[in-house]
């Protein structure tokens, strides 16, 4: 029986869902397939090693891929070529993670869709397609409110000696204080954005401390001021979120929406369940 394979890929990981015609689903996980980070060779090796699907046995007739880094037709073609070759499937679509977030949260309704995970992004979706979108500048010069943005703040507060003694001790107990090792991982090793985002865990563990709350609130304010509040549709339609950072700090989102008079939509830790519903309806 023919199947549809759905993929939601970030820089760190990819969630795969195989949907059969009977609507039975199976889930798989691999590393991320971001075309800005992975080479073609990397992608093939990752799929061969980590994805526990035998293409010849699954009768896959269609693949829909949503991923960070799929920002234009060239990057989409890069991913489509790899998936077509690996799976031997002709019907392959590669879309941005932003469209994936919009379909997962808005389905066929109008709304703002936002990503707050390792990176950040936002767009206005009219129920069929993305109509307007702020540019995503990546973790070095953008990604306000994201895991990488928060992680950089944690490192700055510690190494610039801004944390109080309790937070400095908690940081040392968890990570040590070897600056050269951290700089090595940030500037000379791959997937630095995911490494930086890993320091968000420190903020989660230290919730309630005024410095930690200030870091989180300031990062979200930066995201709202540079993105959400620039859409005139923000005051007309629900604002939805996907991503681990949005889900973990959803209390901050609710507080900001109360402050600005905005409507809160759904807040999903991952878009995979929403995408599953969206594409299952097509069968």
UniProtKB/TrEMBL annotation:
Determine if Kinase is one of this entry's keywords.
Answer: yes
The protein's UniProt keywords, in alphabetical order, are: Kinase, Transferase
Q: List the source organism.
A: Taibaiella chishuiensis
* InterPro entries (UniProt xref): ATPase_NBD, NAGK-like
Could you identify this protein by its name?
A: N-acetylglucosamine kinase-like BadF-type ATPase
Single GO term (MF): N-acetylglucosamine kinase activity
């Amino acid at each position: 029986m023919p199947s549809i394979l759905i993929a939601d890929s970030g820089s760190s990981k990819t969630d795969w869902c195989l949907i059969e015609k009977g609507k039975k689903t199976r889930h798989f996980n691999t590393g991320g397939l971001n075309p800005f980070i992975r080479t073609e060779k990397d992608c093939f090796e990752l799929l061969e090693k980590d994805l526990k699907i035998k293409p010849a046995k699954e009768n896959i007739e269609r693949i829909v891929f949503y991923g960070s880094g799929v920002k234009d037709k060239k990057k989409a073609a890069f991913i489509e070529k790899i998936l077509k070759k690996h799976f031997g499937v002709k019907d392959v679509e590669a879309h941005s993670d932003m469209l994936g977030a919009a379909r997962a949260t808005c389905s066929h309704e109008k709304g703002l869709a936002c990503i707050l995970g390792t990176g950040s992004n936002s767009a206005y979706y009219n129920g069929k397609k993305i109509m307007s979108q702020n540019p995503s500048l990546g973790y070095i010069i953008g990604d306000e409110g994201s895991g990488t943005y928060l992680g950089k703040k944690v490192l700055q507060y510690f190494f610039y000696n801004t944390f109080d003694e309790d937070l400095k001790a908690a940081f040392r107990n968890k990570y040590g204080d070897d600056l050269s090792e951290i700089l090595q991982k940030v500037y000379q090793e791959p997937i630095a954005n995911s490494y930086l985002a890993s320091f968000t865990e420190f903020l989660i563990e230290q919730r309630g401390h005024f410095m930690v709350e200030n870091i989180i609130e300031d990062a979200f304010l930066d995201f709202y001021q540079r993105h959400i509040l620039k859409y005139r549709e923000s005051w007309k339609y629900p604002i939805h979120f996907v991503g681990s950072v949005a889900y973990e700090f959803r209390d901050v989102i609710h507080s900001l929406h109360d402050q600005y008079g905005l409507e809160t939509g759904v807040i999903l830790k991952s878009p995979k369940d929403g995408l599953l519903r969206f594409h299952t309806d097509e069968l």
